[in-house]
């Protein structure tokens, strides 16, 4: 399972209620989403790739909790599948259609997750010479 930037205890504190029984799985999937959103970000890490700056560690934990909260509110399980389908019913007529996800397969980051990352300076970096 992927590394998670937050614990079930942190998620429970964020949500203000007990964490779901599958919190570890949700946190791992949300951490993967956050990693995908930070694909070109530059920040200090240890040899295992774990962030070392306490500000970044806290921002990553907050962003993962916000991502799980967002997915739970949307009825999502972290797979992204439920966001691709919609249904409409009117009387005896029922229509279903797939809807496109984020452009180019990009990750749909929760607004609060993105803000946590922005406040820590983990997004919006320009091009850096090698």
Question: What does it look like?
Answer:
- This protein is mainly alpha-helical.
- It has one domain.
- Helix content is 40%, strand content 9%.
- The chain has 4 helices and 2 strands.
- Strands 1-2 form a two-stranded antiparallel sheet.
- Strand 1 and strand 2 form a beta hairpin.
- The protein is globular and about 60 Å long.
- The mean pLDDT is 84.
**Inertia-based shape:** globular
Q: Tell me the strand percentage band.
A: 5-15%
Order of helices and strands: HHHEEH
Trace the largest sheet across and list its strands.
Answer: 1-2
Let me know the number of strands.
Answer: 2
Number of domains: 1
Low-confidence spans: none
User: Which structural class do you get from the secondary structure elements?
Assistant: mainly alpha
Number of helices: 4
Largest sheet: 2 strands, antiparallel
Radius of gyration from CA coordinates: 17 Å
Helical fraction equals: 40-55%
For the residues shown, what is the average pLDDT? 84
Distance between the termini: 32 Å
Keywords:
two-stranded antiparallel sheet; 40% helix; single chain; globular; mainly alpha; 130 residues; 4 helices; 2 strands
Write the layout of secondary structure elements.
Elements (H helix, E strand, L loop, with lengths): L7 H8 L7 H15 L16 H20 L11 E6 L2 E6 L12 H9 L11
Antiparallel strand pairs: 1-2
């Amino acid at each position: 399972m992927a590394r998670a930037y937050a614990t079930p205890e942190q998620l429970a504190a964020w949500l203000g209620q007990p964490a779901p029984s599958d919190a570890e799985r949700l946190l791992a999937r949300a951490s993967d989403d956050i990693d995908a959103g930070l694909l070109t970000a530059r920040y200090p890490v240890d040899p295992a790739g774990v962030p070392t700056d306490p500000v970044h560690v806290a921002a990553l934990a907050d962003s993962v909790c916000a991502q799980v909260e967002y997915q739970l509110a949307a009825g999502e399980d972290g797979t992204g599948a439920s966001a691709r389908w919609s249904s409409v019913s009117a009387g005896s007529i029922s229509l279903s259609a797939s809807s496109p996800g984020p452009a180019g397969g990009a990750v749909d980051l929760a607004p609060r997750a993105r803000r946590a990352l922005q406040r820590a300076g983990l997004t919006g970096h320009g091009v850096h010479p090698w």
